[in-house]
Write a structure and sequence with these properties.
alpha/beta, six-stranded parallel β-sheet, globular, binds nicotinamide-adenine-dinucleotide, binds (2S)-2-hydroxybutanedioic acid, Malate_DH_AS, NAD(P)-bd_dom_sf, NAD, Malate dehydrogenase, Malate_DH_type1
Length: 370
């Protein structure tokens, strides 16, 4: 029995995300909270013949929405329009996230908290500082959702490699050598979630060689780092908004990984012969607070070696190990075989990340009241 709450459930991301979560058999109850339309969205979804109960909650009912929630996902907040950076959203979204996280601290302090709202690089520090002020902070519970960067990296890498293969082998256009849905073996993304803080890592040397040889490496990196802009620009032709559908898919993938980990924990209790290894689930990157997580200090040291000894990186997106839906360990081996170019990108990312993190931390520090 797992209750999942979505805060901001009626929005462009919130609605398709809630739909995908309604289809997830590991969820028994879906609490849909928003300042508008939550009941309508919940009633609509409740007609779907899957077993998760859907209930809509409006402003005054936030306590009811959150009570008993094992996972809270936050896509509440303002999206970008052309000419606006994610950082420009901070003013509005920091207040929204701080207030919602204060309610999480009050009504479900042990919940795993997954923040989608932008700018993720600053709003995770806002969430962490808020939880600290409320006295309920646990580093393993707080995750910034950066899965969309990985989804894009997998898509674009397959596209460039397929394009090359078609040209090199003279095959028919549209022939698929690389399956987009299986590219997770070959590419990862670390750093943060905006522009140059997003650092794609190509694990397969043959693939990075092909990208370089065909002159597509720069284009690949740029598309992953600025994929969000492509969507904002395309939507601006006839409306406005940023990525919603691809984000909903990415968000539901991430929630699914957390749910698998929550359910695995329960299995050993039922079957005595399970090993503790079975309880751990390694997942794709998420933006976390490194101090307080196992391997976190080692990763901070590695990042210092890459970026310079004066750097003080406390937050980073990287692959993690989950147990019971909580981050127990970060993957320090991710930096072992990176190229010089990837090191340079990480160095640039860290400089920007430090500013983003300070902004979030200062926002909460300067508030007298939560
Ligand atoms: P949207 O405007 O369509 O939806 C936002 C929703 O939040 C609305 O329904 C609104 O009523 C609700 N909301 C506002 N204040 C609230 C509050 N205090 N409590 C509860 N709900 C509240 O925007 P969107 O397109 O869904 O984007 C939402 C956020 O997600 C944006 O900040 C966007 O930048 C971010 N985003 C992040 C990623 C990522 O990869 N992490 C990807 C896409 C979008
Ligand atoms: C994205 O990467 O698509 C999101 O962060 C939304 C945005 O503002 O680009």
């Amino acid at each position: 029995m797992v209750k999942v709450a979505v805060l901001g459930a009626s929005g462009g991301v919130g609605q398709p995300l809630s739909l995908l979560l309604k289809l997830n058999p590991m969820i028994s109850e879906l609490a849909l909270y928003d300042i508008k339309l939550a009941e309508g969205v919940a009633t609509d979804l409740s007609h779907i013949n899957t077993n998760a109960d859907c209930v809509g909650y409006s402003t005054e009912d936030i306590g009811e929405a959150l009570k008993g929630s094992a996972i809270v996902v936050i896509p509440a907040g303002v999206p970008r329009r052309p000419g606006i950076t994610r950082d420009d959203l901070f003013k509005l979204n920091a207040g929204i996230v701080k207030n919602l996280v204060s309610s999480v601290a009050k009504y479900c302090p042990n919940a795993r908290l997954l923040v989608i709202s932008n700018p993720v690089n600053s709003l995770i520090p806002v969430a962490v500082e808020t939880l600290k002020r409320c006295g309920v902070f646990q580093a393993g519970n707080v995750m910034g959702v950066t899965t969309l960067d990985l989804v894009r990296a997998e898509t674009f890498l397959a596209e460039y490699l397929n394009e090359h293969d078609v040209k090199a082998m003279g095959g028919p256009i549209g022939e698929r050598t690389y399956d987009k849905s299986k590219m997770y073996k070959f590419v990862g993304v670390v750093g943060g979630h905006s522009g140059e803080t997003i650092v794609p890592l190509v694990f397969n040397h043959m693939m990075s060689h092909t990208l370089t040889k065909t002159g597509k490496y720069d284009e690949f990196i740029h598309r992953v780092q600025y994929g969000g802009d492509e969507v904002v620009k395309a939507k601006a032709k006839d409306g406005s908004g940023s990525a919603t559908l691809s984000m909903a898919l990415a968000g539901s993938k991430f929630v699914n990984e957390v749910l698998i980990s929550v359910h695995r924990r329960e299995e050993p209790r039922r079957r005595a012969n399970r090993t503790s290894e079975r309880k751990n689930v390694t997942i794709s990157s998420t933006f976390v607070y490194l101090p307080g997580l196992s391997n976190g200090k080692e990763v901070q040291e590695k990042l210092k070696q890459i970026a310079g000894s004066e750097c003080r990186v406390e937050y980073f997106s990287l692959p993690v190990v989950l147990e019971d839906g909580r981050v127990t360990r970060v993957d320090k081996s991710i930096f072992d075989n990176i190229s010089q170019r990837e090191r340079e990108m990480i160095k640039v990312a860290i400089q920007e990340l430090e500013k983003n993190v300070t902004k979030g931390r200062d926002f909460v520090a300067h508030k007298t009241k939560l």
